[in-house]
Inverse folding.
């Protein structure tokens, strides 16, 4: 994956900027030629000739700056379009990853992808890319003007072009490595920033200001040291290439004087020709710097995956089986040779002490944990570990709600009839809560549902799974925050639903509840 994909996808936005740059730099080179004519008039003491070309130069400068302003607008718009497409591909790359990788990943990496990475792509790729294309236009127009003045100037410009073109290849690997190192360091720093700031309330309560500041300083150093190393090495390499560019420009000025001495060009051409050759050498120098910058941006595109890969979806008609499932975490055995069977539309409970592996079983069924031994069978066929069953709903103690309305948290952008929504609200015992909310379903729940209680969050999570059409529901202590009355209402509703496969994890079930399950597994 690289930047070329986005250029091809938005070729008209891209080409409009390129077209304006061609005209813009053409105007600037014309000004140089007009200046030669004006200087020639001054040497010949021909005021009318001097005034004529001065006025034409002034008008051309006006056109140049007018085009500049329009080009800046079109360039900013193109970058906006490119960045939105990159973000969209990042969203899809994250979404299309396996559920196991999504759960294992550090979410601060994802945040960094759509914030820091986009800023770096703009700085290292889009801006330098357009700058590089503008410099190509500058070089080509300058070369055309030099051909018009004298063939030897053109030949020298070509030699200069070849030297400066191949210079970046010497440092190509170095630039790419710097980009990769900086990307890795920023990801680590982002994780440390997130960890520190999420725990700020605990540190404030316990008066750990010095520890907080110290940790923040260490995270900041990780971020800034990587940027410092990248910046100073890039500056050193650019200085080397800048020196070579200046050396070539001095040679060009010597060549112009020699040609004037031998009568191949007029005296008035000396200043203009040197500027045109300077346009070639300076253009090449800027071109090289832009190309080096784009090399550093490659690592930021590498996180974007092929989003055309089709997911492996699956479902079962008869039963799901766990065959000889074993799982260890950090060398600690969690499950050892577990065998369970879950028939469609039946109700199951898994009970056991804390740490016995109850939640792990649900996560293996969901695919959240995939590094287990044994098999998960769908109607007797082993499930591939990267396959996903979209018919399974999962309600845990740790429920995430979006900073939006209750309605949006239930529907997640899908359309449902009022009867479907009412049915889900009734089954989750959420109707009574909504009656006390002035805005009903349009009540904003706040960041991660902070404006409502844990029990209300759990009811919303149950209603969400039912509304989304999940015909199998895994509940991992998912009603633990509810009062006894509402918990019994929800559990009895789910247990009496003949079209729902239910697996419920609990530390303990009373005798009245046990008899309502088709089978209770104790581990």
């Amino acid at each position: 994956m690289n930047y070329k994909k986005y250029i091809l996808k938005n070729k008209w936005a891209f080409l409009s900027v390129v077209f304006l740059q061609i005209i813009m730099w053409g105007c600037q080179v014309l000004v140089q030629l007009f200046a030669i004519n004006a200087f020639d008039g001054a040497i010949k003491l021909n005021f009318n000739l001097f005034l004529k070309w001065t006025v034409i130069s002034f008008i051309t400068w006006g056109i140049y700056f007018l085009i500049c302003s329009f080009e800046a607008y079109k360039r900013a718009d193109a970058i906006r379009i490119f960045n939105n497409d990159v973000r969209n591909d990042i969203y899809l790359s994250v979404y299309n990853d396996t559920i196991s990788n999504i759960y294992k990943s550090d979410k601060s990496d994802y945040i960094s992808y759509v914030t820091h990475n986009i800023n770096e792509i703009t700085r290292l790729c889009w801006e330098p890319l357009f700058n590089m294309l503008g410099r190509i236009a500058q070089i080509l127009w300058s070369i055309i003007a030099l051909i018009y003045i004298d063939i030897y100037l053109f030949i020298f410009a070509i030699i200069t072009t070849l030297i400066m073109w191949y210079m970046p290849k010497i440092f190509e690997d170095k630039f790419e490595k710097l980009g990769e190192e900086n990307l890795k360091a920023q990801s680590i720093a982002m994780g440390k920033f997130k960890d520190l700031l999420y725990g700020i309330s605990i540190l404030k309560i316990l008066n750990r200001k010095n520890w907080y500041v110290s940790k923040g300083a260490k995270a900041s150093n990780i971020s800034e040291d990587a940027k410092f190393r990248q910046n100073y090495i890039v500056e050193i390499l650019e200085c080397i290439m800048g020196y070579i560019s200046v050396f070539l420009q001095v040679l060009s000025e010597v060549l112009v004087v020699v040609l004037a001495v031998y009568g191949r060009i007029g005296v008035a051409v000396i200043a203009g020709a040197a500027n045109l050759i300077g346009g070639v050498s300076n253009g090449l120098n800027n071109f090289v710097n832009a190309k080096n910058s784009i090399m550093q941006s490659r690592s930021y595109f590498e996180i974007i995956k092929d989003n055309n890969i089709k997911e492996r979806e699956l479902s079962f008609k008869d039963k799901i089986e766990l065959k000889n499932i074993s799982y260890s975490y950090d060398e600690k055995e969690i499950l050892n040779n577990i065998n369970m069977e879950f028939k469609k539309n039946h109700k199951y409970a898994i009970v056991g002490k804390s740490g016995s592996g109850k939640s792990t079983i649900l996560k293996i069924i969901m695919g959240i944990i995939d590094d287990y031994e044994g098999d998960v069978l769908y109607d007797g066929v082993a499930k591939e570990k990267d396959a996903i069953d979209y018919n399974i709903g999962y309600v845990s103690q740790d429920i995430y709600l979006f900073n939006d309305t209750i309605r949006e948290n239930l529907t997640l952008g899908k359309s449902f009839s009022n009867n479907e929504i009412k049915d889900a609200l009734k089954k989750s015992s959420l109707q009574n809560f909504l009656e006390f909310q002035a805005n009903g379903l349009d009540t904003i729940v706040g960041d991660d549902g902070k404006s409502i209680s844990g029990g209300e969050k759990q009811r919303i999570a149950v209603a969400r799974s039912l509304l989304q059409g999940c015909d199998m529901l895994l509940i991992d202590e998912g009603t633990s925050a509810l009062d006894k009355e509402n918990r019994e209402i929800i559990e009895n509703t789910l247990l009496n639903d003949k079209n729902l496969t239910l697996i419920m994890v609990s530390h303990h079930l009373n005798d009245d509840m046990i008899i309502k399950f088709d089978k209770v597994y104790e581990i």
Observations:
- The radius of gyration is 34 Å.
- Residues 209-261 form the longest helix (53 residues).
- The chain has 17 helices and nine strands.
